[in-house]
Design goal:
Blueprint: E1 2-5, E2 8-10, E3 13-15, E4 20-21, E5 25-26, E6 31-33, E7 36-39, E8 43-46, H1 54-64, E9 70-72, H2 78-81, H3 84-90, E10 95-98, H4 100-110, E11 117-119, E12 125-129, E13 132-138, E14 148-152, E15 157-161, H5 178-193, H6 197-209, E16 214-217, H7 226-237, E17 242-248, H8 254-268, E18 273-277, H9 283-290, E19 293-303, E20 306-307, H10 309-321, E21 327-334, H11 340-345, E22 354-355, E23 359-362, H12 367-384
Parallel strand pairs: 8-9, 9-10, 10-11, 15-16, 17-18, 17-19, 19-21, 21-22, 21-23
Antiparallel strand pairs: 1-2, 2-7, 3-6, 4-5, 7-8, 12-13, 13-14, 14-15, 19-20
Helix pairs in contact: 5-7, 5-9, 6-7, 8-12, 9-10
This protein binds MU-OXO-diiron.
Residues 75, 77, 79-80, 143, 162, 218-219 line the site of MU-OXO-diiron (FEO).
Length: 385
């Protein structure tokens, strides 16, 4: 339990051991399930915890010496709500404060009884007494439809839930290393918020308008210099793009060779390219690189009659994360069964970038193939530039 401001405590927990989120997203720095307690004349807790940490979270609440009257559910996803059942058993008199949509989701996910809820409207308030009034702002789709912010004007603290957060476990309450948190927050943005870029821009404007002194998200450290994360989000959510990203996988060197040629041409043409080998790169790395890539190229060998599964996975990821990438290029190699690139293109139906003409060779690229590939890469570079 740590103190965030006068009568405001951080009662969340660190999860240093978790290595995957949603059984999908690698967590190089673990994560935290942040929760905050505000002690006015009445006491409110902001957000719960992952159910695996219910005991530690409830112990942190007990240690403040305050008995909660309310718990604010900014977001229904289980990493912030899963311990609500334990909370209700420990504090049977307390009410769960949520939007109508939040209540509906919590009922479906946790089977909580309807009489436990107090509903709030967008821009509604809850007066805790003692000068502590909570203000609620709906912030839909960052990243679920029911997500909302809670603002405490008395201390100018914005509790932004997932928005502006980072998967980062630390004993330090506030950001101590902005360079490291920049990367962790970018990774988090790429994986969680990037598909909702337009909604994120709106939520960012809302957050800035509230002019908080502290931003306290539900994952990672709190920001006592909010402009740091505001500026980062302004950049990531803008429509500005640059450079090319190459995502490739190679089995016997053909695609590796093609990748080398493409990369050299792009660099020579000033369209700096980062190449990630999908056999090694983790999903977070790929997502981060997609945040501002103007072009994304996927290189795939053919295996078992189709594109290599790692390339299929990258295409599916691109389709799901909906980056602001403007051009997509597909290239690869086959010996027989030349459908790999068509198969990849078929996975990109959810996004709107221009799909450039594909480039497929038979086996190891010949000298003639290499000449044609140079021209292909020059066309890509012209688009990127
Ligand atoms: Fe951290 Fe959407 O849950």
């Amino acid at each position: 339990m740590r103190r965030l401001a006068d009568r405001v405590f951080a009662v969340g927990v660190n999860d240093n051991k978790r290595r995957l989120f949603d059984a999908l997203i690698p967590l190089p720095h673990g994560t935290s399930y942040n929760s905050y307690l505000i002690a006015g004349e009445k006491t409110a807790v902001i957000d719960a915890s992952d159910p695996l940490f219910a005991d530690e979270w409830l112990k942190n609440i007990r240690e403040t010496g305050y008995k909660p009257d309310y718990i604010i559910a900014n977001h229904a996803e289980q990493d912030h709500s899963g311990a609500l059942g334990d909370f209700v058993r420990e504090y049977p008199e307390a009410k769960i404060v949520a939007s109508a949509k939040g209540r509906d989701f919590l009922k479906l996910l946790l089977h909580l009884p309807v009489e436990k809820f107090v509903l709030v409207e967008d821009r509604g308030t809850l007066d805790l007494g003692g000068g502590f009034v909570l203000e609620f702002y709906f912030a839909p789709w960052v990243h679920w439809p029911e997500t909302m912010f809670t603002f405490l004007p008395a201390a100018k603290i914005l509790f932004s839930c997932d928005f502006l957060g980072a998967h980062y476990a630390s004993a330090d309450l506030y950001v101590t290393d902005e360079a490291e948190i920049y990367l962790a927050a970018k990774r988090y943005y790429a994986e969680i918020m990037m598909p909702f870029r337009a909604q994120s821009r709106k939520a960012l404007e809302l957050a800035k308008k509230l002019d908080p002194r502290i931003v306290a998200p539900s994952h990672g450290q709190a920001y006592n210099r909010p402009e740091f994360i505001f500026d980062a989000y302004a950049d990531w959510t803008s429509e500005e793009t640059k450079n090319a990203l190459i995502l490739y996988v190679s089995m016997h060197g053909s695609v590796q060779k093609m990748t080398g040629i493409i990369r050299r041409v792009l660099e020579a043409q000033g369209a700096a390219a980062r190449a990630l080998d999908l056999a090694d790169a983790d999903l977070g790395e790929v997502a981060m690189e997609l945040v501002d890539a103007r072009a994304a190229l996927i290189g795939a060998p053919t295996v078992l009659g189709g594109a290599h599964p790692a390339a299929l996975y990258a295409a599916a990821l691109l389709n799901a994360l909906r980056p602001k990438t403007r051009y997509i290029g597909l290239y690869g190699s086959c010996l027989w069964g030349g459908k790999a690139l068509e198969q990849l293109a078929g996975l990109l139906s959810n996004i709107k970038p221009e799909i450039l003409p594909s480039f497929l060779v038979k086996g190891l690229p010949s000298a003639a193939d290499e000449d044609k590939l140079v021209l292909w890469a020059k066309d890509v570079a012209a688009k990127v530039n």
